[in-house]
Each structure stands twice: as C-alpha cells, then as structure tokens.
Amino acid sequence: MNSRRETDSERLLEEFRNKMMKAAAAHGFHHPEVIYYSQMVDLQHNNLLEEKKSDRKCPMFQADCMA
C-alpha cells in the first residue's frame, strides 16, 4: 500500500486526463475539446515536474544543480 498522499497538482493532472479521455471517446482525438484537455494535461505535467524538481533539489536534473 502506498502511503504517499496525492498532491493537488497530481489530482488536477488526473482530472484533466480523465476529461480528455472521455472527450476523445465521445468526439474523436482531433476534436477541439480533446486538444484543449491535452494541452492542459501537458501544462499541468510540466508544473508538476517543476514542483518535484524544486522539492527534491533536482536529483533528476543534475545539470540544474551545478550552478
């Protein structure tokens, strides 16, 4: 069992992903609503990576820590 709590950013990412998948099932992958949610997923994923990068003092991005 994983005891780590899901963050607000992770919940938001999952919410956008679920909406994207439902919209794709209803309208097809090229529908503007699907593209919008896909872009929101990308933005939220980037935000989450930035949060984790700063929280962990960049273990995944060692070059950033060298400065």
From TrEMBL:
One BP term from GO: regulation of sporulation
Gene3D superfamilies registered for this protein in UniProt: Helix-loop-helix DNA-binding domain
InterPro entries: HLH_DNA-bd_sf, Spo0E-like, Spo0E-like_sf
Pfam families in UniProt: SpoOE-like
Coiled-coil intervals, chain numbering: none
Molecular-function GO terms, alphabetical: protein dimerization activity
Signal peptide: none
UniProt-recorded name of the protein: Spo0E like sporulation regulatory protein
Organism from which the protein derives: Salsuginibacillus halophilus
